[in-house]
Amino acid sequence: xxxxxxxxxxxxxxxxxxxxxxxxxxxxxxxxGVGCEMDAILDIAHRHGLKIVEDAAQGAMxxxxxxxxxSIGDLGALSFHETKNLISGEGGALLINxxxxxxxxxxxxxxxxxxxxFFRGEVDKxxxxxVGSSYLPSDLLAAFLLAQFEDAGTIxxxxxxxxxxxxxxxxPLEQAGQLRRPIVPAECEHNxxxxxxxxxxxxxxxxxxxxxxxxxxxxxxxxxxxHESPAGRRYCRTHGDLRVTxxxxxxxxxxxLWYGLSLAAQEGVAAVLSAGHR
Length: 278
What we know:
Blueprint: H1 15-18, E1 25-29, H2 38-48, E2 51-55, E3 63-64, E4 67-68, E5 75-79, E6 92-96, H3 102-109, H4 115-119, H5 139-150, H6 152-175, E7 188-189, E8 195-198, H7 205-214, H8 230-235, H9 243-251, E9 252-255, H10 263-275
Parallel strand pairs: 1-2, 2-5
Antiparallel strand pairs: 3-4, 3-7, 5-6, 8-9
Helix pairs in contact: 6-10
Protein name: dTDP-4-amino-4,6-dideoxygalactose transaminase
Enzyme class: transferase
EC number: 2.6.1.59
C-alpha cells in the first residue's frame, strides 16, 4: 500500500480496498515517531472485525491525540535497539492492550511454556504449550534501560530541542525548493526519533551523501521499501500504486540526531545541504 505524501506513514484512505477475506490484522508503522491516523484506522478495524498491531518501534514517548503510541491498538511493539531514543543494545517490549492476548503472549515469551502460571500456583506443573523462544534481556541490560526510563522526559526534551533546531536551520532551504522538511500533523506529539529531508526529484542523492561523507558527517539513506526487497517480492502482496512510497525512499536522507548534538554540527549539516549537489 502507498504512503501519504505528508507523514510517509500508512495511508488510512487505502486500507479498506486492500482488505481481503484472509486479512486478520492491520499493522501500522508510526514512522519517525509520528502517529498514523489512528481514529480512522480503529474505525476500519472495528467494522471489519480486525486486530490492530502498532509497530511503535520508533514511537517511545510519542503520542497521538494524547495517547501513547503502542497503547491504541490491540498490540504495540517498542524497540530498544541501539538506534532508538531509549536503548539497551537490542530488545524491545510488547504492549498488550487486549487482555485476551495476554496469556498466549506470556507463553510465547516463556519459551512456549506455561512456566509463569506454574510460579503463580495456577497449574501444578509447567509444560510446553505453544511456539516460543528466549526473549528475556539480561539483568544488566534491563538496568541500563531502566536508568534511561527514569530520565526519558529529559532525553526526549533534548532530542526535540535538536529536532526543532534542524527545522529552523533548514526552513530557508525548503523555501528555496532545495528540500522538503518533515511534516508533523497537529494531533501528533512526536519524540524527535529522527530528522529526515526529502531531496527534489532529479537531485543525485548518492552525490549528496558523498558530500556528507567528505565532511565527516554521518548522514544516511533510510529503509528500502518492503515491496522492493527480495523477501518482500517472495512473500508479500502489494496493493495499488506505490509511487509515493517508492519516490520518497529514493529521495530521503536521514540526518544525524543524538542526545547532545551541537549547534555547530547541525550548522555543518545545513551547510552541506545548502551547497547542493546536482
